[in-house]
Amino acid sequence: MQKHFEQELESLKTNIVKMASIVDEMVENALTALETSDLELCKKIKAKDREIDAYDNLIKTQCENILALFQPFAVDLRFILTSLMVNNQLERCGDIAVNITQRVKPLINHYDLVVESKIIDMVKFSKQMFKEAIDSFINRDLELANKVCGEDNVVDGYNKNIFYYLIDKMKEKHELIEPASHLMILSRHVERLADHSTNIAEDVIFMISAEIVSHKHKLMKWAEKEQSKNQLETEE
Question: What fold is seen in the domain 2-219?
Fold first, then answer.
């Protein structure tokens, strides 16, 4: 029974790694398509999305079966729960790769604007975050997972700078309003890729240390505001 359980866990991990590898390839190809205006490559990326959907269903079924048959607890239970959460994030990252390809054709004649906006640098950094997040899951690397969580601010900075750069460009040349708008949407997609990578890293932290860090920063700010509010009410 124990051997069967371990085989099921290993099979689950293998499928998540395979799914992550496909998503990583999709994001890499989306970056290449953006840099080279390769519309044929965009079609291949969209076709891969169906494979991601198949893995999504498979992994959900595997997790459900393991929970029903073996009733895992402690570390093993956290692994199953994390697998479900990571699976969800991977499926969304695959969708984002497809969303990136949808901006390639409208930007074909505006390569200079694409390069000057630094969106390619943003995609590369977000892709690296994704790879690190997956590596942290595969290797149960707590330090690497924490590193990914700290890198999200870098992508937020890219997103902010690109937004203001494009605003200035649209004011300067009205004919750039349409391509700049596509770039703004693209920047938002890439920012979401980094968010999902951060979510994966947070899930890994939960898996390894049983610590829930999702929304931790926002909750701390909320707690501080509530504390200040209570202090003021007490003083009155």
Answer: Methane Monooxygenase Hydroxylase; Chain G, domain 1 (1.20.58)
pLDDT of 213 = 87
Do residues 165 and 232 make contact, with C-beta atoms less than 8 angstroms apart? no
- Domain chopping of the chain, boundaries: 2-219
CA distances from residue 223 to 202, 216, 218, 229 in whole angstroms, order as listed? 20, 10, 9, 10
Do 136 and 204 meet the contact criterion of CB atoms below 8 Å apart?
Answer: yes
Exposure string over 36-51, b if 16+ CB within 10 A, otherwise e:
eebeebbeebeebbee
**pLDDT, position 218:** 56
* Burial (0-12, 13-18, 19+ Cβ within 10 Å), 127: buried
Residues 217 and 177: their CA atoms lie apart, in Å, by 36
Full-model pTM:
0.90
pLDDT digits (tens, 9 = 90+) for 43-65: 999 999 999 999 999 999 999 99
Q: How far, in Å, CA of 171 to CA of 1, rounded?
A: 68
Q: Which residue has the tokens 């979510």?
A: 199
Distance of alpha carbon 206 from alpha carbon 198, whole angstroms: 13
Q: How far apart are CA 42 and CA 203, in angstroms?
A: 30
Q: Name, in order, each residue with C-beta under 8 angstroms of 124's C-beta and a sequence gap of 6 or more.
A: 31
